[in-house]
Design a protein that fits this description.
- This protein is an alpha+beta fold.
- Helices cover 37% and strands 12% of the residues.
- The chain has a 4-stranded mixed β-sheet with strand order 5-2-1-6, with helices on one face. The protein has a two-stranded antiparallel sheet with strand order 3-4.
- A hairpin with a 5-residue loop joins strand 7 and strand 8.
- The longest helix is centred in the last third of the chain and has 27 residues.
- The relative contact order is 0.10.
């Protein structure tokens, strides 16, 4: 007697689509294949200094920031790590496809040095999506300023139009940005958060045994400047409310 198998409850398997094809539907029930604390970095690969070829500079790449510090294996002296996400590299033909993949997976992500070609052939900075600033949102949450995520997103979005200067190149200390009377509030927020990102990368490089410019990270200084700036803003708003009430 031939055995009958009921396959009515089996989900159909799509044919012809790769696992990271952007036409797939978002993951059901908000599930993600990546850990909740994973932060992705999307960037356009640059040409190596030792070659004139450009074959590997096309498209965009998605990698993951290190979540734990590396360690030295005591027996052989090798540098090891328990964070296997740093071995993952995903390539995409366009920035939009990389961003859609990160959003579909529920990832916090940052677009680094994003540029796009204008129709006239000129190169201009691409306007980053507000949700790309995962680092900014996590920093604000850690400092107890999570309610300001949208405000900082708007400030970062307008950085290119304002032509904000680089913090480390224009001020001797992060506190100088917070106290500069020539800067608008949006410019201060954008400059300090970008400065924090720069110091965060230096901190990562130091933990990996590759210190940048032979100096320690100043991330703590930038975070203190962010706190001082927002305390001043809150005090000004409170004083303004008291004057109106009077």
């Amino acid at each position: 007697m031939e055995r009958q198998v009921d396959r009515s409850t089996r989900a159909p398997i799509p044919r012809g689509w790769s696992s990271n094809d952007n036409r797939q539907k978002p993951l059901s029930m908000g599930r993600s294949t990546f850990p909740g604390d994973a932060v992705a970095r999307i960037y356009k690969p640059s040409r190596a200094a030792t070659t004139s070829g450009t074959a590997r500079t096309r498209g965009w790449r998605l990698v993951f920031e290190r979540r734990t510090a590396p360690f030295v294996e005591p027996l052989m002296g090798y540098t090891g790590s328990r964070d296997t996400l740093t071995q993952v590299e995903l390539n995409f033909p366009t920035l939009e496809s990389a961003v859609r993949y990160a959003e579909r997976q529920g990832l916090s992500y940052v677009v680094q040095n994003a540029t796009e070609q204008a129709d006239d052939g000129a190169t201009r900075p691409a306007k980053p999506a507000r949700s790309t600033y995962g680092f900014s949102n996590m920093t604000l949450d850690r400092l107890g300023l999570g309610a300001l995520q949208e405000s900082y997103g708007c400030a970062l979005d307008g950085a290119a139009n304002r032509n904000d200067p680089s913090g480390p190149e224009s001020w001797t200390s992060p506190m100088g940005v917070a106290r500069d009377p020539k800067l608008t509030l949006e410019a201060k927020r954008s400059i300090l958060m970008n400065w924090a990102w720069t110091e965060y990368l230096i901190d990562l490089a130091t933990n990996e045994g590759m210190p940048e410019n032979d100096r320690p990270s100043r991330l703590d200084e930038v975070q203190q400047a962010l706190l001082a700036l927002e305390r001043e803003v809150a005090a000004d708003q409170a004083n303004s409310g008291m004057r109106k009430a009077a």
